[in-house]
Write a structure and sequence with these properties.
Layout (H helix, E strand, L loop, with lengths): L1 H54 L4 H18 L4 E9 L12 E11 L11 E11 L9
Antiparallel strand pairs: 1-2, 2-3
Helix pairs in contact: 1-2
């Protein structure tokens, strides 16, 4: 009986040595997925608020300025640190006549740094983008 207990004592150590790396890998993967999903949500919120802010403008230049300001404010509020941040505003429909349906579209692209939680052989950054359109008031004057 004592021999049997002696043989089993080292088995817990071996099991931990096998399980510990896989558990750490799983935890690292979960953190990485969490970071990516939070970054997606932040970029999505930035694009939404920028499209809304741009649609309230009366001319394309103001729409561009308001969209960029809105994106920067939202990204800062969400505590997202982009390596590169691009804001594209399609304000071409400001040229439409009053009474015609028109909209403004904002695209936000952010390159997120994932080096802190990256696993070996994995990319250390990822591009995340979102696009939203917001309608312009049909009966409000606009300059194109």
């Amino acid at each position: 009986m004592n021999r049997r207990l002696t043989r089993q004592r080292g088995s817990v150590t071996i099991e931990l040595a096998i399980l510990a790396p896989s558990m750490m890998l799983l935890a690292s993967f979960a953190m990485l997925v969490g970071r990516i999903s939070l970054a997606n949500a932040a970029v999505d919120a930035a694009a939404y608020s920028a499209a809304r802010a741009a649609s309230l403008a009366r001319d394309p230049a103001t729409a561009q300025s308001r969209a960029e300001t809105s994106v920067q404010t939202t990204v800062d509020a969400q505590d997202l640190h982009c390596l590169n941040l691009f804001v594209t505003v399609d304000a071409s429909q400001f040229e439409r006549e009053v009474g015609e349906p028109a909209s403004v579209t904002v695209t936000v692209e952010c390159r997120v740094d994932l080096a802190a939680g990256a696993m070996p052989g994995m990319d250390t950054d990822r591009w995340i983008s979102a696009q939203y359109s917001s309608p312009l008031d049909q009966f409000r004057g606009r300059a194109g």
